[in-house]
TrEMBL record:
<comment type="similarity">
    <text>Belongs to the encapsulin family. Family 1 subfamily.</text>
</comment>
<dbReference type="Pfam" id="PF04454">
    <property type="entry name" value="Linocin_M18"/>
</dbReference>
<keyword id="KW-1284">Encapsulin nanocompartment</keyword>
<dbReference type="InterPro" id="IPR051429">
    <property type="entry name" value="Encapsulin_nc"/>
</dbReference>
<dbReference type="GO" id="GO:0140737">
    <property type="term" value="C:encapsulin nanocompartment"/>
</dbReference>
<protein>
    <recommendedName>
        <fullName>Type 1 encapsulin shell protein</fullName>
    </recommendedName>
</protein>
<dbReference type="InterPro" id="IPR007544">
    <property type="entry name" value="ENCAP"/>
</dbReference>
């Protein structure tokens, strides 16, 4: 038995297969950060910290001739979001049903993605994570017709810093909807933005405030996974089973000049 304790759940193999598949389908569109940064791992649940390759001096007055230094690491954070599944639905899976209702799983997948996206794009100061949006900012505005100008300015900032493309525009759900619904002199704003980004991506990212333009050239940002997002078992009663989505990760910005934030 591992830390997910799935063996203790009153869930058949057929139902677990559907739950895992639904979790993958609902998570993938939301995990925008993973399409922009380098991903290392997963290294396993027992993987606790990212090696930073640095040391700090330690005073040791009783050994004046000794050089004492401590290795520096970045601890991973564990994220767990619970959700429930009705036992009636699980029983239906045992009868062969393949259209189980997982509304609460959809909410949990969204919440996990928001936490991960926020940590990558806006940082998590308490944990020592610096986000992509911390380096510089450009005004985005609230009108989608103004987005191409703002994104072009952001791309110029990156190019002037010697950061190669293609580039990605990562934007919150409201801004993304504005983009796909707006035309500019007969041209879809989405198509215009892709040209400005050098053939890069325009990504919808729940949890992102404003937007971020970042290089897709690689080697600038690292999301390190211990446990990739997985479904675990918590407890159950006569009506429902409480499960959870869980992951562990750290995030580092290796090149701060490789991203710039856009604020409304």
């Amino acid at each position: 038995m591992n830390h997910l304790t799935r063996e203790l759940a009153p869930i058949s193999a057929a139902a677990w297969e559907q739950i895992d598949e639904e979790a993958r389908e609902r998570l993938t569109p939301h995990l925008a950060a993973r399409r922009v940064v380098d991903v290392s791992g997963p290294h396993g649940w027992d993987y606790s910290a990212t090696n930073l390759g640095r040391v700090r001096p330690v005073n040791h007055p009783s050994e004046r001739t000794a050089l004492v230094r401590q290795r520096q690491v970045l601890p991973l954070v564990e994220v767990r979001v619970p959700f429930t599944v009705a036992r009636d639905e699980l029983e239906s899976a045992e009868r062969g049903a393949t259209d189980l209702v997982f509304d609460d799983l959809d909410r949990a997948a969204h919440d996990v993605a928001v936490l991960e996206n926020k940590a990558v794009f806006h940082g998590w100061e308490e944990l020592g994570f610096t986000g992509l949006a911390a380096s510089s900012t450009t005004a985005l505005g609230a009108d989608a017709e103004s987005y191409p100008h703002a994104v072009a300015k952001a791309v110029d900032v990156l190019r002037e810093a010697g950061i190669k493309g293609p580039y990605a525009l990562v934007i919150g759900p409201l801004g993304h909807r504005r983009i796909v619904e707006t035309t500019e002199q007969g041209l879809m704003v989405l198509d215009h933005l892709r040209r400005i980004l050098g053939g890069g991506k325009v990504l919808r990212a729940p949890g992102v405030d404003g937007a971020v333009v970042a290089s897709l050239d690689g080697g600038h940002f690292v999301l390190e996974l211990g446990q990739d997002v997985a479904v675990g078992y918590s407890h159950h009663d006569a009506d429902s089973v409480t499960l959870y989505l869980e992951e562990s990760f750290s995030f580092r910005v290796l090149e701060p000049d490789a991203a710039t934030a856009l604020t409304e």
